[in-house]
Specification:
CATH superfamily of the largest domain: Glycoside hydrolase/deacetylase
Number of domains: 2
Helix content: 25-40%
Number of helices: 9
CATH architecture of the largest domain: Alpha-Beta Barrel
CATH class of the largest domain: Alpha Beta
Radius of gyration: 20 Å
Amino acid sequence: MMKQCDIDAHSIIGSSLKQWLQRLFCAAIATVMTFPAWAQSNGVALQYHRISDSGPAITRISPADFTAHLELIERLGFPVLPLDLLLTTMCDRSGSSASAVALTFDDAHRTVFEQAWPLLRERGWPFVVFVNTAAIDQRHGGSMSWDQLRELAQAGVIIGNHSVDHQHMSRKPAELTAQQWALWRRQQVVDAQQRIDAEVGTQPKIFAYPYGEYDLATAEMMADLGYTAFGHQSGAFGCSSHLQALPRFQVSGAYADPESLVLKLGTLPFPIDGPLIEPVQSAGNRQPRLTLTFGGGFDDGFDPAAVNCFATEQGAIDTTWDAEQQVLVAQAGQSLPVGRSRYNCTARNTLQQRYHWFSQPWFIPDEFGEWPAE
C-alpha cells in the first residue's frame, strides 16, 4: 500500500483516470480515520446485486469481498442507517461525526437472503432490497420468495420498488403513443408497490430505476407519486440533491475491490443549486454539454474551480468555471458511446481531506434511434 501511495495525492490534473482514482484513494486512506465533526448532512448508498462467486460478473460480488466490505465499514466507523431515516436526516448537522451509509440490493436475488442477511443481522445493520415483482411471482433467475421477503420485512428490512418487469423506463417503444408510454411507466410503479405492500406490509416509497435509467418525465412522475428514486450514477447525496435522481455507488463486478470502497465511503456531494438535467440525449448529441449551477457560499471547503471531470472511455475532459455566474461547464471532446455513459466530476475538499463527487448519467441511442440489446 505504501508503495502504491507514494505519489502526490493532490496533483491530479492531466493524469489518466486510473492514476487519478489511485491518488484519490491514497488521499482518502491517509485521512479517513480523522474526519472532523460532520453530521448526517450527506449520505452514501452502496448498490449490490448478488453475493456469489458465480453468475454475471457485472452484478456479483464474492462472499469474501462482501464480508471485507462490511468489516471495512465497521472498522472505519461509518454509521449504517435505514435508507428512509437517512433521507429524512441528511440535512441535519447536529449529529454524527461521519457520513452515513445505506446498503441496497437490487433484484432480490436469493443470495442476499442466504449470504448477506446473516452477516447484516449479526451486526444489526439495516438495508433495502429493491424488488421487481414479476420476477418474485415467477421465481425467476434465483429470486427470493415472498416468504423470504416477508421475513426480512418483519425484521425491519425495507422492501423497495424496482418496477414490475424491470424494463427500461427511459426508452419509449415505437409502437406506443406518448400517452400509452406515460400510463405504462406509471403502472410499472403503482402496480409493483401494491403487490409489495400486499405481500409484506406497507413499505416506504423508495424506487430504484431499472438499469439506472430515467428521463425528466419519469423523474417528474416519481415526484408526483411521492417517491424518492435512485439511479446507478455514482456519488454522495445531500440537501441539494434531486430526490428523484439520487446516486448510488456500484460495488459489484469491477467495482467490488474493498480498497476502492474507502474513497466511496468518504465522498461528499456537490452543493448544486439548479434543475435536474435531462440524461436522455439524441443520437446527434453525443458530446452533451454539462452545466452545473452552484448557490455560492462555499464555506465547507468545496472549491468549484478545482473540479475535474471525466467522461466514459475518454478520461479527463474540458471543464471551466465561471465565478461570476457560479456555473461550471464540462463537455467531452469526443462522442460518447451509444447506450449508458457518464461524466464523473470530483473536487478535493480543502478542509476535510475528502472528495466531492458528482456523476451525470447520459443515455444515448444510435443514429436509427435504437438502443443496445441487453
